[in-house]
């Protein structure tokens, strides 16, 4: 299979269980676990369609119908204002592809889906972060993005 064998589309209500499976895998990679109420709240926010809430795209087998179906990958992204730019910027927050089907261009396809959504929203840019040890993802990111010199800090 190749990336073209998968449909890229917005997350649907019927995707709840599969979305949770993939997001749990993503969080486990970063050695994180969240309470069920965070899952419920995040999914509700992803489904809200509000401009200030995050959005999600998913990959599923092409032509697999409207009902619940296995998901191959997900990406969460959101827009926010930027003091240096006249239009919002897009932050790609979470990107995950099912480990059993990696290496087929699905991560790239998800990122390109965010690029297209950001272009449609007239965002002035797309950015994301990853941990320095995430070497597999960084191989893709080095081909599809530009590493910046910024270091992230946060309140202790």
From TrEMBL:
<dbReference type="InterPro" id="IPR000182">
    <property type="entry name" value="GNAT_dom"/>
</dbReference>
<dbReference type="Pfam" id="PF00583">
    <property type="entry name" value="Acetyltransf_1"/>
</dbReference>
<dbReference type="InterPro" id="IPR016181">
    <property type="entry name" value="Acyl_CoA_acyltransferase"/>
</dbReference>
<keyword id="KW-0012">Acyltransferase</keyword>
<keyword id="KW-0808">Transferase</keyword>
<dbReference type="InterPro" id="IPR051016">
    <property type="entry name" value="Diverse_Substrate_AcTransf"/>
</dbReference>
<protein>
    <submittedName>
        <fullName>GCN5 family N-acetyltransferase</fullName>
    </submittedName>
</protein>
<feature type="domain" description="N-acetyltransferase">
    <location>
        <begin position="6"/>
        <end position="156"/>
    </location>
</feature>
<dbReference type="GO" id="GO:0008080">
    <property type="term" value="F:N-acetyltransferase activity"/>
</dbReference>
